Amino acid sequence: ERAAERGLRWHSYSSDEQDEASWRMSLLGELDGAIDSGQVWVAYQPKYDLKSGMVIGAEALVRWLHPERGAIRPDNFVPLAEESGRIGKLTRHVLDTALGDFATITSAVQRPVVAVNLSTTMLSAPNLVEMVCDALWRNGVLPEQLVLEVTESAAMTSDENALAVLERFRSMGIGISIDDYGTGQSTLNYLKRLPATELKIDQSFVRAIADSRSDEILVNSTIQLGHQLGMKVVAEGVETTDVLERLEAFGCDVVQGYLIGKPVPFNIFTRNYRPQITERAA
Ligand code: C2E
Ligand code: MG
Ligand code: MG
Ligand code: MG
């Protein structure tokens, strides 16, 4: 009987799993209110152009500062929002915040670009195009100032309809970036069909180029491939000058990473980079 008892216990949830499950459930119930009350905010990580030596914009990264649980990482609540149908509200909030913030950067030499991450599930949301257009108009930001980042796997699994949505954005002048490139399994044929303006090499490969010859070859040839396909190539997760120098030698266009700057609140971002962005302004 003891064995059976134990067997039963093995097949039921452990208290850790139960904690995890109820933690997820309660977070889910709190997300709506958290967005409305300002607990969900947006951090900006600079994108640095290697040729001009200037910060040309930022990636918007969502953050949740929970009053009891502290800072919750997007990896812990974005998937929850996706599963529960709250991702539309979250996406609208990030888009609106990011475009509202960037609309305040005036007199820039080149209008700074802001990149917003899009969940795979959003690509099949019927109101996505309307949501993006609406956010641009309301905040008075040009489509050329917005980049939408979709993961390689999202782009891969996307149906014809999702492809049409990306093409629609492209025709409006919005940039499309393929995020985490190298982690999915997109074929060259597929990559060729994507209306993307930017290829963003995943940080796992970027970090590895410092001590792996094969990763160096992979990253170098990916940069050349991106250029051949007419895309700008971005490397994410740049943490050392050694890696930065290699990327520069390979002709990489833009870098992002802790070496350049961590994701920070908008006021810190502008304090750090406004002089650069507006350097040559009249
Ligand atoms: P991602 O879009 O690939 O973003 C890059 C992640 O790497 C960010 O983590 C960033 O803070 C981190 N990172 C940047 N540079 C470095 C570096 O030099 N070293 C290290 N170790 N990490 C670096 P974060 O902010 O935790 O975001 C994780 C993921 O959550 C993002 O990956 C993105 O897929 C997702 N995410 C973030 N914000 C949003 C959002 O507003 N909407 C959606 N749908 N997803 C989001
Ligand atoms: Mg991204
Ligand atoms: Mg990425
Ligand atoms: Mg990622």
The 3D shape can be described as globular
Rg value: 21 Å
Judged by helices, strands and strand pairing, the structural class is alpha/beta
Number of strands: 9
Distinct ligand kinds: ligand C2E, magnesium ion
Q: Strand order of the main beta sheet, please?
A: 1-2-4-5-6-7-8-9
Number of helices: 12
Protein name: EAL domain-containing protein
Domain EAL: 24-277
GO molecular function: cyclic-guanylate-specific phosphodiesterase activity
Keywords: Membrane, Transmembrane, Transmembrane helix
How are the SSEs placed, and which strands pair?
Elements: H1 2-11, H2 15-36, E1 40-49, E2 54-66, E3 70-72, H3 74-84, H4 87-103, E4 113-117, H5 128-139, E5 146-151, H6 152-157, H7 160-172, E6 175-181, H8 188-193, E7 198-201, H9 203-208, H10 213-228, E8 232-235, H11 241-250, E9 254-255, H12 266-277
Parallel strand pairs: 2-4, 4-5, 5-6, 6-7, 7-8, 8-9
Antiparallel strand pairs: 1-2, 1-9, 2-3
Helix pairs in contact: 2-3, 4-5
The structure holds ligand C2E and magnesium ion (3 copies).
Ligand C2E binds at residues 45, 61-62, 73-75, 78, 94, 117-119, 149, 179-180, 236-239, 256-258, 263.
